[in-house]
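Chain entry —
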Amino acid sequence: MKGKAVHFTNDNGDKLSGILELPVERKPAHFAIFAHCFTCSKDLRAARNITLALSQKGFGVLRFDFTGLGESEGDFEDTNFTSNLNDIAAAAAFLEENYTSPSLLVGHSLGGTAVLMAGSQMESVKAIAAIGAPCEPDHVLKLLKEDIDNIRKEGKATVKLAGREFSIKSHFVEDLEAQGMQRILEDMRGKALLVMHSPQDETVEVINARAIYESAHHPKSFVSLDGADHLLSDKADSLYAGDLIASWVQRYLPAMETPGDEEHSEEQVMARLGEGPFLTEILAGHHHLLADEPESVGGQDLGPSPYDLLTAGLGACTAMTIKMYSNRKEWDLQEVIVHLNYNNDYLEDCENCENEERKIGRFERIIELKGKLDEKQRKRILSIANKCPVHKTLEQGITIETRLKEVDAEKGE
């Protein structure tokens, strides 16, 4: 996933650090802001995975560090919930000035509460997704219950949260207590709401999701993240959440046009590898795909490997060719299933990629046919399978011409 480092200033003059994720075609149909959980950062794996899912659906996504956290300037002890709302407003202003105003806000934990309150005041925002969010900001005070009295008495105290120490001042506590979510939800209309929460969440109990859902107006949806912990530590949970948000929100936004980029308009496929080490985004036509390597070789296993994609291309072409031929003959072919294996080892190939004597690997293809076909028809179909265009291309060999693209010397890209 290719992220662009960006910076913008909040109303206190602090420079906030963000990552802007753009889809491969670089022309997002819509923009979104992701607000991280309390005392976390934009680099939490759950934030990256949710952002990845949205960018795969054509969104530009800005995830940033709140004041005093991650790479953003400012002192955390001088912040409060209101300053978080102001930071989200600053992020939206940055997008409006440089790209397009955000139409979607996504927030995790207290970030979810923040996007609900901030989004209610943003005309451009059409949809809000809250993940594991407290129904009231002062729910966070439960995390500080052993230190509340000391904070009130001394004016501030050092507390340990998630294994790290933070200085919390009394104004932080007072600001949380002064907020009111229910009234805002009751007054908020014309914005779609998605509430996602795990019944097993021990940090923010699922009853908070019920309170948010019941206070809000339609259109609203609830999805249970059953089995997930509060931080969505399991990769599968954050990927599921991201995919679901990306699919859900399209119902409430203007139709996304087929992405276009004049610079790449003549290219059939684009592949982009940024942060990784191997995760690669692919744009094939107007379809977004991912390629990756298994965790056993250092990948994240977020998509098929390059050889899996190559093998899949052969399988798909084989099935389509057989189906087209059978339809033309009006044969009773109800289903065709192509089973494939490729016996080359990708890492071994990479280690020998400069060796011109390297031998080509071997595909094993087993075709399963379902329908009322006689033996003559089945044999003919087997013969036709060998005539599929991808098969013929692989068998006959091709020429690959490679060149470097001209770079902009000033931009270095």
Q: What stands out?
A: The chain has three domains: 3-252, 262-297, 306-396. Residues 262-297 form one domain. The CA atoms of residues 7 and 17 lie 5 Å apart.
